[in-house]
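hiii, so i know i said id send this last week but things got crazy w the move. better late than never?? heres the sequnce for the chain we talked about at the cafe, plus the structure i predicted for it. fair warning i was half asleep when i ran it
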Amino acid sequence: MSDDRPAPPYAASAAVAAPPPVPPEGQAPVRDRTGLAIAMMCAVSLIFAFQDVFSRILGGGYPPVLIVMIRYWVFALFVIALVARQPGGLKRAIRTKRPLTQIARGVILALEVLIMVEAFVRLGLIETHAVFSVYPLLVAALSGPVLGEKVGWRRWTAIAVGFAGIIVILNPGGGVISVTALLPFAAALMFALYGLLTRHVSRDDPAMVSFFWTGVSGAVAMTLVGIWDWQWLAPMDWVWMACLCVCGMTSHYLMIRSYEMAEASALQPFGYTQLVWVSILGVFLFDETLRTNVVAGACIVVAASLFTLWRQRARSQ
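okay and structure toks below
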């Protein structure tokens, strides 16, 4: 991102397998089109949910690293094509003042996506997203030690409340918390770190430079790990993969357009509509159970996250 905006909710949805897109440099948001931008963000959240469905379908029959690798190949091509159309083209996008940090961002995001796909297969869509929704709180908590930002007592209170919501979701009183149940939390932690590093490099590198390095370095990292698990997909599974890739490009294009029309802080809350879509799809397509503690805990986490976003917007104004 070109400024200090936090990453949009669910931008690192596992099926998305891509970083939060960034609007072209020097293009200020058009405030009077906020309503259209919000509608587009809601559409993006729906597409993200279907991407997660495709990821779970494919992840159940193939190594998740293979699915993420192929997905990243297509995304890298999308990034290169998009960046090539910007002023300066690829020659400008390659030049970065922080190459190691840019590479680290891409690798961290790729690993986060991989963990999310694994969580979809093991936990299902509903529980994975319920826990992952804590990531804005992790961004707030880590912004102090990573970026040196001051976090006031109100946001620390919201962070504590949000973590209480995670405890409600995990329901430790119902049995031993398995490592599997912590997968989406680990993914949320990695995505929060990715978001903070994005804000860090934005001080020196333009938005499209970060966008380029995230897609390309992630594709390289996944190739180095996933090529050893290569296998040809069944004909029908190539159809699912094509749907996944088409949805990925469509969702990111729509997200880029929405961030050209409105401020990130106005759009972020509507990213949480993905929780609704994945719950509906999880119940009807995969017979997942919408447990009471998951719903209650997710509501607590989302409420705390929205308060944190509101406080950040208020402070920036």
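btw The CA atoms of residues 25 and 112 lie 27 Å apart. thought thatd interest u
miss u guys!!
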